Amino acid sequence: MKLLSTAATFLLCVAPFSATARSLDFFGSQTPIKAEGKHVEGENPLEYCSDPSSYILQIEKVDLSPNPPLPGQTLTIEAKGTFNEKIEKGAYVLLEVKYGLITLVRQRADLCDQIVNVDLECPLEKGEMALTKQVDLPSQIPPGRYTVHADVYTADDRRITCLDAPNVVFKRNFL
């Protein structure tokens, strides 16, 4: 369950900004994951779901450190972006996390109830915003391929942002 809350926290950082993840290699050589589609700027595996020019949140960049994130270590997420309008209570996130073909999480969550986990609160004011958040990752993340989808809307169903992390791979960590 800690993994699910970590994934949710990660995506909530992504929803009002963006985040990243990384692959772990059997022998310690690691390469940052980069999205192949409409990549979110910075060191992250995030892609926009569609053309972000109409999104309420314009993400400047998202960086993770370490990149890739490592089980049992603290992940630092730094994000910067601009809200084109104030985000009020009632905004929501459609979140889906899959492990391979298995859906681990598929839920609609109130954005304002969730962003307290990343030290934010509603309303999110119009204008520039920067976020730095540290997340302790569990040491036992099951190896495999994860995909994450976060679609964020205002209370009146206008898209704030939509992000995918289509290929986050954790490999078994051998000593």
UniProtKB/TrEMBL annotation:
Residues 1-23 form the signal peptide. One of its GO terms (molecular function) is sterol binding. Keywords: Lipid transport, Signal, Transport. GO terms for biological process: intracellular sterol transport. The keyword Glycoprotein does not apply. InterPro entries: Ig_E-set, ML_dom, ML_PG-PI_TP, NPC2-like. Residues 46-167 form the MD-2-related lipid-recognition domain. Pfam families: E1_DerP2_DerF2 (PF02221). Transmembrane segments: none annotated. Catalyzes the intermembrane transfer of phosphatidylglycerol and phosphatidylinositol. Belongs to the NPC2 family. Monomer. This is Phosphatidylglycerol/phosphatidylinositol transfer protein. It comes from Aspergillus sclerotioniger CBS 115572.
